[in-house]
């Protein structure tokens, strides 16, 4: 949210992520020469009914706008009695100044349903769901238009769920998640946000699932922003905002995809050093800066699936990187990174530099997990490479508890090739393997050949090997141990 949104006596007043005490707001002096509009609070008072029906409101008429008219759907606050209520908007002309709460106090449950293409709801300022802890608010938009001129807060302190199956939802301010738990589902239609989208903010939690439609954000879509904030964006279809940051300012964000293309022009996974961002699933990502985790995951499908990163920016050299940051593949997944032009050294999953390989996990610009450095003597040609899940169909037979498997092609004609691998120490531990016993193998003429050179550097989590030409599948695993027979 940018700027200050003022209100008095019961209307939300906040700057970025801060809600001010109502008593302090009410104490503000009136502006000279200005007459403040009277606050009028409208409560929906039937179990289920239409917005346009006058008798469904405690004031005996539907709300109006142009002043400071507040609407409560599902509220027992301030003597209101209908804690559970469903309000239906079935025609044009529904208006108010503030949607003060859909789901107000603890145990209150408010529902708003927008039913058809002719229906419209125009809220002049803020739109709030799940206002207090223990409350719950839901909106079902099947068609029509819903708009608000200020902040849209999907879960101020309670729970909120907005399910859009069509129509247009317009926000004049930011998309916010308060300290509660919010859910937004975009199946069809268009979401338009004139401000920033804070999906998971203020220490709250939010899950945004897009299976279709278009999400248009005029500024930045931030998935998981702020300390203790958690957010998941499930992209199963449709168009994403142009700029998406996953993991911002100490928050944790996950961008899931399933056979989709991320059409954002700017995508950053882990926007700053204090955050965690994850790209997960399979499909195509035309461009990304990756400083967090990328996991190629087939989601348990019987067939192999590929996550393709068409363009990869070099990671931020001032960040620290641990064993949780890097490249991973599971459940028939295959992670294909961009082809790299010949250089010496050259790296898969890292920039072509030697300096960062001297760092241990947790160090500044330490190598990402499962990155591989190549030092050639002679040779030429581009490098293509993919990280394979251990159960991927293309993995050659004979691997034993593989920590990681890569499939490399080119360059060729080199005299020697020294590999330095930042192995996955957390995966090795999960398999019950001793790091010092790990070896590097290359698939040569139908069998796995041990190409390890030297001992495992368990401090830097690195292992070196001497690869043979032509490059092929490379794997890190511990050789199987023989069977001991005791004769008495």
List descriptors:
single chain, 488 residues, mainly beta, 2 domains, 19-stranded mixed sheet, 6-stranded parallel sheet, elongated, disordered C terminus
Number of helices in the DSSP assignment: 2
The helicity comes to under 10%
Number of domains: 2
Averaged pLDDT? 91
**What gap, in angstroms, lies between the N and C termini?**
78 Å
Number of strands: 43
Radius of gyration: 28 Å
* Structural class by sheet pairing and helices: mainly beta
Mass-distribution shape: elongated
Largest sheet: 19 strands, mixed
Strand % is 35-45%
Which residues form runs of ≥5 with pLDDT under 50?
1-31, 483-488
Protein described:
- The chain has 2 helices and 43 strands.
- It is elongated and about 90 Å long.
- The chain has 2 domains: 35-358, no CATH class; 372-477.
- It is mainly β and 488 residues long.
- The longest helix is centred in the last third of the chain and has 6 residues, at 425-430.
- It starts with 13 loop residues before the first strand and ends in an 11-residue tail after the last strand.
- The protein is 2% helix and 43% strand.
- The protein has a 19-stranded mixed β-sheet that branches. Strands 3-5-8-11-14-17 form a 6-stranded parallel β-sheet, with no helix packed on it. A 6-stranded parallel β-sheet has the order 7-10-13-16-19-22, with no helix packed on it.
């Amino acid at each position: 949210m940018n700027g200050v949104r003022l209100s008095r006596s019961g209307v939300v007043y906040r700057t970025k992520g801060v809600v001010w005490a109502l008593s302090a707001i009410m104490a503000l002096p009136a502006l000279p020469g200005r007459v403040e509009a009277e606050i009028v609070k409208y409560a929906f008072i039937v179990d289920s009914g239409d917005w346009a029906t006058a008798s469904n409101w405690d004031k005996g008429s539907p709300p109006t706008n142009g002043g400071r008219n507040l609407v409560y759907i599902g509220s027992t606050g301030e003597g209101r009695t209908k804690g559970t209520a469903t309000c239906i908007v079935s025609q044009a002309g529904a208006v108010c100044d503030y949607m003060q709460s859909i789901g107000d106090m603890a145990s209150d449950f408010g529902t708003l349903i927008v039913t058809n293409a002719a229906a419209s709801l125009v809220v002049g300022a803020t739109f709030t769901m799940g206002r207090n802890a223990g409350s719950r608010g839901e909106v079902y938009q099947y068609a029509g238009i819903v708009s608000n001129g200020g902040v849209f807060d999907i879960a101020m302190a309670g729970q909120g769920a907005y399910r859009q199956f069509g129509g247009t939802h317009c926000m004049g301010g930011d998309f916010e998640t308060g300290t509660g738990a919010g859910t937004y589902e975009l199946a069809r239609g268009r979401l338009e946000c004139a401000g920033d989208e804070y999906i998971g903010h203020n220490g709250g939690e939010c899950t945004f699932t897009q299976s279709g439609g278009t999400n248009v954000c005029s500024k930045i879509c931030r998935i998981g922003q702020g300390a203790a904030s958690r957010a998941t964006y499930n992209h199963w279809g449709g168009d994403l905002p142009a700029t998406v940051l996953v993991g911002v300012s100490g928050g944790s964000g996950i961008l899931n995809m399933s056979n989709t293309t991320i059409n954002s022009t700017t995508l950053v996974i882990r926007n700053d050093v204090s955050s965690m961002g994850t790209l997960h699933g399979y499909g195509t990502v035309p461009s990304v800066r990756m400083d967090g985790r990328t996991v190629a995951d087939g989601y348990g499908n019987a067939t192999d699936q590929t996550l393709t990163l068409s363009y990869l920016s070099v990671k931020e050299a001032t960040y620290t990187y641990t064993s949780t940051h890097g490249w991973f593949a599971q459940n028939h997944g295959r992670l294909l990174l961009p082809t790299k032009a010949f250089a010496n050294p050259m790296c898969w999953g890292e920039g072509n530099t030697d300096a960062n390989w001297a760092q241990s996990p947790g160090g500044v610009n330490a190598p990402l997990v499962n990155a591989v450095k190549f030092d050639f003597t002679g040779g030429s040609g581009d490098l293509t490479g993919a990280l394979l899940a251990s159960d991927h169909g293309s993995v050659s037979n004979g691997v034993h508890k593989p920590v990681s498997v890569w499939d490399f092609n080119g360059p060729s004609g080199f005299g020697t090739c020294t590999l330095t691998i930042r192995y996955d120490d957390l995966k090795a531990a999960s398999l019950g393997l001793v790091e010092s016993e790990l070896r590097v193998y290359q698939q040569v003429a139908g069998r796995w050949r041990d190409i390890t050179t030297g001992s495992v550097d368990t401090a830097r989590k690195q292992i070196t090997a001497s690869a043979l030409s032509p490059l092929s599948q490379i794997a890190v695993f511990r050789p199987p141990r023989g069977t001991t027979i005791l004769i008495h």
